[in-house]
Amino acid sequence: MGNPFSRLNLVYNPFEPAGSGAPVSGALWVPERWRQPLQDFIDAMEYTRGPKAYAILGGYGSGKTYLLRWLERVEFPKRRIRAFYFDNPGAQFYDLANSLLRQIGREEFAKSLWEFLNPQLPGFQMSLFGNPFREWLRTVKKYRRQDEAIRLLAEKIAERQIATDEEVRYKLARLIVETYDQPYFEYKDFVAGHRTSLVAEREEAPYFAAVLRSLRFTGSANAIGFLLDEFEEISLQKRLTKRQAHDYLSTMKRLIGLTEREQFWIVIAMTPQAKDITAKLEPALWERFVSHGKHEFEIPPLNDYEAVELVQHRLKSARPEEGGSDNLFPFPKELINYLREDIKSSPRRLVKVCSLAIARAASTSISGIEVPFTADYINRIQEELYPSVTSTEEGSIK
Predict the structure, then answer these.
(1) Rounded to two decimals, what is the model's pTM?
(2) Is there a domain that residue 27 lies in?
């Protein structure tokens, strides 16, 4: 069976049905008006002391997640900033440690840190075969040298300037050695005070700083970047309890502190309403976070030119090799004139309309859809997904 998208001069549908996030494949493109403020911020702070914190503001469907993914995949890697993306990570500080290290995986984190520290136990002979890290762990356990291995690793952690605090060094060393019995993380591992916790009690911030340095050193990165999406879910609750408000603000304070002391960047995406609530909870903290408004950007709606560019870039990424045209086909050249203002100005709505239009035209069970698409077809698609006020009123009258 042939490719159902071939008559549309496409290999696949480059528009995701949900219209949110970023496409799995293809180069990410962002409008100049979005890109420039972020690049200016990074340029200004790359070699400057001070909080490397930034807030991206926008309503639902405005492109916040897409912009974070662009930073993760395009802009940060160019500057050797190792980026980690988090979706609604939670209010408490240990939620971030949990999300971060479970995203990496315990064995991967422990193995990379072990290789960086290169601990040499006296009388230990490394195998030339298999997994050297697992072999080292197995031998340490077999000959009951765990305490000795933890002491040696803790010394190496201090020597390589990952952590100065004795308890933090011990916890990181224990994390490595105990990976043999537990090669995965559990949530309780990051709750300070828990009997088996890997986080030193009352030392959450120094521990987190040590984790950041470990990731930076083992990845040969200039810095670590956190991209926090939907951080607003906490502040947008109808009513914050005192505990929730304390955890939320405390986490923000600790993150800002880390950006000032470490090679650490943080970009938070939130709605303007969430920004207002956060600013009211503690105005001085928010002003410090956004550097008195210099480090915040509210995503503007797409203009006509940007809407056309978005569609063209997505289509180009899905063209066959011999047909790398950057025109709008299977959409008509006059596409922008056929779209309602609320559709073409919203990235999510625009992507969803384009996705459904292509999916329908490629369906083997639907025939008779003319290409390039007609104005009537495009109008039917956008009305189906987002009925206009007029059509809704007409339907209720009928």
Answers:
(1) 0.90
(2) no
